[in-house]
Amino acid sequence: MDKAKATLEKLSLGKNVTLSYGGRWMGCNGRLLTLLHLPDGAWLEGAFLAQCMARVYFLR
């Protein structure tokens, strides 16, 4: 199993996550940009960044 997929399942499977919006609603490709928060308030993408399984892109 892919490490990122296993991490996602470990952190979120069976939990209610909350979607929120950052400073921008749409990305360059027209997709909605959202942030995922776990029930304890932790930022899900932050866990991926901390483990070097994600990259940060700055949008202008």
List the helices and strands and how they pair.
Layout: H1 3-12, E1 18-20, E2 35-37, H2 44-50
Antiparallel strand pairs: 1-2
Describe the structure.
There is one protein chain. The chain is an alpha+beta fold. The chain has one domain (3-50). The protein contains two helices and two strands, in the order H-E-E-H. It has helices at 3-12, 44-50; strands at 18-20, 35-37. The protein has a two-stranded antiparallel ribbon. The longest helix has 10 residues, at 3-12. 0% of the residues are buried. The mean pLDDT is 86.
Specify the oligomeric state: single chain
**Estimated helix fraction:** 25-40%
Identify the overall geometry.
globular
Secondary structural class: alpha+beta
Mean pLDDT: 86
Give a quick rundown of the structure:
By secondary structure, the protein is an alpha+beta fold. The chain contains two helices and two strands, in the order H-E-E-H.
Q: What attributes does this structure have?
A:
60 residues, alpha+beta, two-stranded antiparallel sheet, 28% helix, globular
